[in-house]
Design brief:
Layout (H helix, E strand, L loop, with lengths): L1 E6 L3 H4 L4 E7 L7 E6 L5 E6 L5 E6 L5 E6 L7 E6 L5 E6 L3 E6 L6 E7 L8 E3 L5 E4 L6 E5 L5 E5 L6 E6 L6 E5 L4 E5 L4 E6 L6 E6 L5 E6 L3 E6 L6 E6 L4 E6 L5 E6 L2 E6 L5 E5 L7 E6 L5 E6 L3 E6 L7 E6 L5 E2 L6 E4 L6 E7 L4 E7 L2 E3 L6 E7 L4 E6 L2
Antiparallel strand pairs: 1-30, 2-29, 3-4, 4-5, 5-6, 7-8, 8-9, 9-10, 11-12, 12-13, 13-14, 15-16, 16-17, 17-18, 19-20, 20-21, 21-22, 23-24, 24-25, 25-26, 27-28, 28-29, 31-32, 32-35, 33-34, 33-36, 36-37
Length: 400
């Protein structure tokens, strides 16, 4: 018998479909939603879209009513990042060739303060300082720039990465900035001095997104190799958690209480427990395609997602109070090959047993009695759970 961290409820019951409160489109031509963000009080949702022409939209978070729309000029390309300042007085968005648009949001109708072509040759992420006076942008030239919000003056340029930087995040307390690069390193910066305070050199894979937890104690990194890593943000900067995700992944966010990680992926939105890495749920709107962006509500477990087909969906997440305890479980059943394409076999299984394959919404997709090969060629790509009638479990990844 081996000990595992496991949910006290049966797994299919926990991996349930989530509840959509409302679902709208970020673009009149149904172009992909590349970024979503909440206002500080959670009353508004900001979205930005694929080009051209890209659109920026603001929604009432409670009703889904469209409150404002702005279509950028044809010279602006896809808007991969959009963010409210922490006091909601500003919001900003930046396109993939580095054009920055900053809006005054203090009036009923937002007003464009300025747009400018930044020096970084392209940007994919943006964040505001805790005092709302500065913004940080990544750069495809390998540098990171801090801008003054009011004047658009470059306050500091952070130099140290050796390849494109596509991921930055400013800690909620304003004390540090995190960046992730195609050079396979993640850096912590002092925004006052512009100096690196620590470099994570062991990652060695391109980093596509970074996020600092709301208590400023953890850093979450998403790698191009479909991995998610959680590190301490201080002290020995230890690697606390690694999750292999069975899909291409794009963004990550962490809940207000730091208990849950939400991941935007080609398989939809994935929900994990921060402490254990336990997958809790996978969900998507019908025909949504890839989930490119997501954001947790600042004060609740509500979540907004942006998808390939232009959806901006507001979710009320269910079953997040399910406790995780240590329980004695049988050895996990051994399956090979895994990932699988056309067939699987159960290792060392002489007796005929009933095998059930369940998708992440809890639906039984196959049930068979066998002691040999199981044909899985008709299963679509994704993650499944295989249960044998002796109570053993195992995850199965299908990759055609």
């Amino acid at each position: 018998m081996r000990k595992f961290l496991w949910l006290t409820a049966l797994l299919p019951a926990v991996l349930n479909a989530q509840s959509v409160v409302w679902n709208q489109k970020s673009h009149s031509d149904y172009r992909a939603t590349y970024s979503v963000s909440y206002s500080a009080d959670g009353s508004r949702v900001l979205s930005s879209s694929q080009c051209t022409e890209s659109q920026i939209r603001i929604w009432d978070a409670t009703t889904g009513q469209l409150k404002w729309v702005y279509e950028v000029d044809p010279g602006t390309l896809c808007l991969h990042a959009a963010k409210f300042s922490s006091n909601t007085n500003y919001f900003a968005t930046v396109d993939e060739v580095g054009k920055l648009l900053v809006f005054d949001n203090t009036k009923k109708i937002p007003r464009l303060l300025y747009d400018l072509n930044t020096e970084g040759r392209g940007s994919f992420s943006i964040d505001f300082s805790a005092d709302n006076q500065q913004m940080v942008l990544d750069g495809l030239d390998g540098n990171i720039r801090i801008y003054d919000v009011d004047s658009a003056y470059v306050y500091k340029t952070l130099i140290g990465h050796k390849a494109q930087v596509k991921a930055v995040d400013w800690s909620p307390n304003g004390a540090f900035i995190v960046s992730g690069s195609n050079d396979g390193t993640m850096k912590i910066w002092n925004p006052a001095t512009g100096q690196t305070t620590y470099t994570f050199t062991e990652i060695r894979q391109p980093i596509v997104h970074v996020k600092v937890s709301n208590d400023n104690n953890k850093i979450i990194a998403i790698l191009e190799t479909m991995q998610l890593k959680v590190y301490d943000a201080s002290g020995y900067y230890m690697n606390r958690l690694n999750i292999d995700v069975p899909y291409d992944i794009h963004q990550v966010d962490i809940s207000f209480d730091n208990k849950y990680l939400a991941v935007a992926s080609a398989g939809g939105a994935l929900l994990y427990e921060t402490k254990t890495g336990q997958l809790i749920s996978r969900f998507n709107v019908p025909d949504g395609g890839t989930t490119y962006s997501l954001a947790f509500h600042p004060h609740s477990y509500d979540l907004v997602t942006g998808s390939e087909n232009g959806d901006v969906a507001y979710w009320r997440l269910n079953n997040l109070n399910t406790s995780v305890t240590e329980a004695e479980l049988p050895e996990l059943v051994r399956i090979y090959p895994n990932p699988a394409n056309t067939y699987i076999q159960l290792a060392n299984n002489a007796a005929t047993q009933q095998v059930t394959i369940i998708n992440l919404t809890g639906q039984v997709v196959m049930q068979t009695n066998t002691n040999n090969t199981i044909d899985v060629s008709e299963l679509t790509n994704g993650l499944y759970y295989v249960k044998v009638n002796n109570g053993q479990w195992q995850t199965l990844s299908i990759e055609h």
